[in-house]
Amino acid sequence: MSAAQAQPVILLVRPQLGENVGTAARAMRNFGLTRLRLVAPECGWPNAKAVVAASGAYDVLGATEVFADLRQAVADLEYVFAATARARDLAIPVLAPEAAAEEMHRLGAAGRPIGILFGPERTGLENDELLTAQALITIPTAPDFASLNLAQAVLLLAYCWFRAGIQVPAAIDPAAGEPKATQAELAGLIDQLLADLDAVDFFKSPDRRASLAPVIAVSLTRRGLTRSEVHLWRGIFKELARGRAGPQRH
Amino acid sequence: MSAAQAQPVILLVRPQLGENVGTAARAMRNFGLTRLRLVAPECGWPNAKAVVAASGAYDVLGATEVFADLRQAVADLEYVFAATARARDLAIPVLAPEAAAEEMHRLGAAGRPIGILFGPERTGLENDELLTAQALITIPTAPDFASLNLAQAVLLLAYCWFRAGIQVPAAIDPAAGEPKATQAELAGLIDQLLADLDAVDFFKSPDRRASLAPVIAVSLTRRGLTRSEVHLWRGIFKELARGRAGPQRH
Hints:
The structure is a homodimer. By secondary structure, chain A is of the alpha/beta class. Helix content of chain A is 46%, strand content 12%. Chain A contains 11 helices and 8 strands. In chain A, strands 3-2-1-6-4-7-5 form a 7-stranded parallel sheet. In chain A, helix 2 packs parallel to helix 8 (150-165) and helix 6 (97-109) packs across helix 8. The longest helix of chain A is centred in the last third of the chain and has 17 residues, at 183-199. Chains A and B meet through helix 2, helix 8, strand 8, helix 9 and helix 10 of A and helix 2, strand 5, helix 8, helix 9 and helix 10 of B. Strand 8 (171-172) of chain A pairs antiparallel with strand 5 (94-95) of chain B, so a sheet runs across the interface.
């Protein structure tokens, strides 16, 4: 079984607008999904507006399969999910997108061909079409405004599928690879700054110096600095303090 | 602070197509986001195509604020995320959408106004616009087809924000009690430092200034500063730069 066969087939049932088919193809392609099937497309097929909206996802459109009815379109699939805006009382399990995505990866890894049904723009899937599925997927939305269009629903489920299949680091710290300043280097930086501030009588009184010096030190170094940042700040303080002092530089 | 104030402001920088603004508003509204700002919209505003594409998200469009430049648009925000397709070498942390969404809920629960920047359709955000942000967000995609449009990117981040809020982690911010500096205050601090450094010819050449200025800004502000820290640093730079300048102090 190839990697492509382990991914869910996206099935658009009676899609009405070519733009939405194209935008769905683009959404799929961003997240590594390439298998698209259209069931009795009302928009006709092939469709020029779909090509424009696909923004380069031509491999998806070129391989799109068209079926006259839903039963034929799912005949080779073993497990079918159906996206529906309303959780209906159909005695079929209803999954959140993330849980459905994990299930898809389990099934795909086990070699079981899977698909996701999406209904027409205006009405969504009919009850008898939903009953073709082994599980429903409902995308949670604000209760007072559930108005995702077809391509948006495809995008979100494709994203969740992609996300469930990869381990992306939660955060990349760009300074991670850079050598960190030692405590001695940080102390040297603070000492220099305090000396420069003393030279311009910044603190005015020993009490004020005693209370402000630690605040300054913490503000500049509490998250750590790289060694190159310490050099940079030393240069800044030095030049600020000496730059206007006299003729030696200007 | 109201619930609306705890949600991220969505900022579209120089959007080119009204449809995309409308589709973004629809995407936002599905996931409970209602605060939209446009920065120098190239599509013009108000925009009839945006109204059509919003599919009923008229409360979002009706409350949309328009700003002439980015600095004004983020002036009242304390923490800004920027969506970018390419993780660039900018010394700003890069977060996955889900991690960013959790951070947004923590910041929002702590009463800190936040925003998410999105760039123009064709080019995305410029480097100097990205440097306005405290963190970047990169939506993971298939490596050979990273082609999300503006409204799709808004949709995915709005969804992740909504999803992360269904289970809000207990918000613990050790500096929660102290008022944070706004973006305008941080920008003012950096502007002052750069002017002081220019006055002493710290950078020597425009190229060196262009490469060092963002490093300095990030180094000083990447973790945010409290308002009192901004005052402290402004005082430090001022006194260092002027302290030895002439007879007024010595």
